[in-house]
């Protein structure tokens, strides 16, 4: 059933790994081919041939031109005014440009996609990352996926996106002295 189709998640790596030693396992059989029972080697050969064809169509005939980040991109949408129901011009103004992403779902700094859709576009990832140095809180770092403002006109709306995508972080001062020393602007809230 569709709810059981492989989606590229980590659990499917374990499923396939456990099946590799069983070349005649019934799960290797393509049930859509009547009166034919495929083995592991036939299905893996078919998968590699299909993957090569897809890469040639999507990227290039030359493997040296293949780049994961070309397929594995993150396209963020503003949660209120950036969706498909909004006119294209508005979406273009409020949604950041797509970002090429490294990695996958089974590694540190994971970003996921749904292989069942035929697209490698990023569908999941960390909204922020932080490293807290308990011995020296002022040595802590962090980054958020876009920026610290939800307002598309703010310079801080998506000013952390490229660094987030590259796995970089920013200093995160904690003590009053460190905060005062690193401050570039100050917002004062008054009643």
Structure description:
It is a single chain. By secondary structure, this protein is an alpha+beta fold. It folds into 3 domains: 2-66, no CATH class; 67-125, no CATH class; 127-191, no CATH class. Helices cover 27% and strands 7% of the residues. Strands 3-4-5 form a 3-stranded antiparallel β-sheet. Strands 1-2 form a two-stranded antiparallel sheet.
Defining key terms:
alpha+beta, three-stranded antiparallel β-sheet, two-stranded antiparallel ribbon, single chain, 3 domains, 27% helix, 5 strands, 191 residues
How would you concisely characterize the structure shown here?
This protein is of the alpha+beta class and 191 residues long.
The CA-CA distance between the termini, in Å, is 58 Å
Oligomeric description of these chains: single chain
- The secondary-structure element order is HHHEHEEEHEH
Q: What is the count of β-strands?
A: 5
What class do helices, strands and sheet pairing give? alpha+beta
The percentage helix is 25-40%
With strands numbered from the N-terminus, the spatial order across the biggest sheet is: 3-4-5
Overall pLDDT metric? 89
- Count of all domains: 3
Shape: elongated
Number of helices: 6
Main sheet summary: 3 strands, antiparallel
């Amino acid at each position: 059933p569709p709810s059981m189709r492989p989606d590229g998640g980590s659990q499917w790596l374990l499923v396939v790994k456990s099946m590799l030693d069983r070349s005649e396992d019934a799960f290797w059989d393509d049930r859509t081919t009547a009166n034919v029972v495929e083995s592991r080697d036939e299905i893996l050969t078919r998968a590699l041939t299909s993957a090569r064809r897809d890469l040639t169509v999507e990227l290039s005939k030359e493997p040296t031109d293949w780049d994961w980040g070309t397929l594995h991109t993150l396209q963020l949408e503003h949660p209120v005014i950036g969706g498909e129901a909004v006119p294209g011009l508005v979406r273009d103004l409020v949604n950041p440009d797509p970002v090429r992403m490294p990695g996958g779902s089974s590694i540190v700094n994971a970003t996921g996609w749904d292989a069942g859709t035929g697209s490698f576009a990023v569908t999941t990832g960390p909204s922020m990352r932080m490293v807290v140095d308990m011995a020296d809180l002022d040595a802590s770092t962090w980054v958020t996926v876009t920026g610290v403002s939800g307002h598309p006109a703010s310079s801080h709306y998506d000013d952390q996106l490229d660094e987030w995508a590259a796995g970089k972080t920013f200093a995160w001062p904690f003590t009053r002295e460190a905060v005062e020393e690193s401050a570039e602007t100050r917002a004062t809230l008054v009643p």
